[in-house]
Amino acid sequence: MRYNLSHLDILESESIFILREAAAEFERPVLLFSGGKDSAVLLKLAEKAFRPARFPFPVMHIDTGHNFPEVLEYRDRTVAALGERLIVRSVQDSIDQGRVVEQTGPRASRNRLQTTTLLDAVAEHRFDAAFGGARRDEEKARAKERIFSFRDEFSQWDPKMQRPEVWSLLNGRIHQGEHVRIFPLSNWTELDVWQYIAREAIELPSLYFTHSRRVVERDGMLLAVSPYIQLAESEPIVEVDVRFRTVGDVTCTGGVRSTARDIDEVIREIAASRMSERGETRADDRFSEAAMEDRKSEGYF
């Protein structure tokens, strides 16, 4: 008798192992949940890893205050259906407390301000590990990331100080004040994620599928018109059929022209794409060649 596992079965098994290993090694882990497709897959994997028991960690969202309303509705409904504890920390609170200063101008964004809010929440709850949905295929700085990504006592990430992970051995030893970011989807691709969503019938926010939306074209990206984006007179508003490959802060997350209205059509579209989702749709990664790595060294996801 031969047992043949599909590539999705192998990825799923690895991710469940990582979740269980981290839950065993760390005292106070937390799962970061944005309401996006990757964190939705993380929730499904956590269900498979720990049900019928409850998750051995809470779920936390860092809310910029400029999120898509469809995502916030999905976040609350999904976590409530699971019966898990949801922690929400707001960038607006960090601004009100003087912890960060909000940017102004037509290209202002709160995306980078999330770092301070996240680190304050980690310190407040004394989290020693945080699960995230990042994948190595997203961006070149992500490709340097270990599955157990070590952060020092200042929450800084240094790619030269990461630990080897040969033979799938994951080193979770840390000193007081340090913590680890854990990425169970490190070896997945965007296409893998969508194929798994199809296989497991995972519900997603509606903006992942083609819909008509008022947008403005800026720097080659289609940004959703919202109260949080300051428009110039030279930027006309148009209504087009778009979908979003990622979800994040409205001010820096672009849509793509698309006709993909269901999961099968999205999978075909992604299979034919030659540009990563962050490269095509995230304005915050276009500030410089090392934009993501600079943010990560400060404590970003």
SSE topology string: HEHEHEHHEHEEHEEEEHHH
In DSSP terms (H or I, runs of 4 or more residues), the helix count works out at 10
Model regions low in confidence, pLDDT < 50 over at least 5 residues: none
Strand order in the sheet with the most strands: 3-2-1-4-6-5
Report the count of strand segments.
Answer: 10
Q: Which sheet architecture does the biggest sheet show?
A: 6 strands, mixed
Residue-averaged pLDDT? 89
* Cα Rg: 19 Å
Measured distance between first and last alpha carbons: 44 Å
> Approximately what portion of the residues adopt beta-strand conformation?
15-25%
Tell me the structural class: alpha/beta
Fraction of residues in H or I helices: 25-40%
Assign an overall shape: globular
Can you describe what's shown?
- It is a single chain.
- β2 (59-63), α3 (69-82) and β3 form a beta-alpha-beta unit.
- α1 packs across α2 (37-50), α2 packs across α7 (190-200) and α7 (190-200) runs antiparallel to α8.
- The model has no long low-confidence stretch (mean pLDDT 89).
- The protein has helices spanning 7-25, 37-50, 69-82, 91-96, 114-125, 140-143, 190-200, 263-272, 277-281, 291-298; strands spanning 29-32, 59-63, 86-90, 129-131, 148-151, 179-182, 211-218, 221-224, 237-243, 254-257.
- Strands 3-2-1-4-6-5 form a six-stranded mixed beta sheet, sandwiched between helices. A four-stranded antiparallel barrel has the order 7-8-10-9.
- It contains ten helices and ten strands.
- By secondary structure, it is of the alpha/beta class.
- 34% of the residues lie in helices and 16% in strands.
- The radius of gyration is 19 Å and the shape is globular.
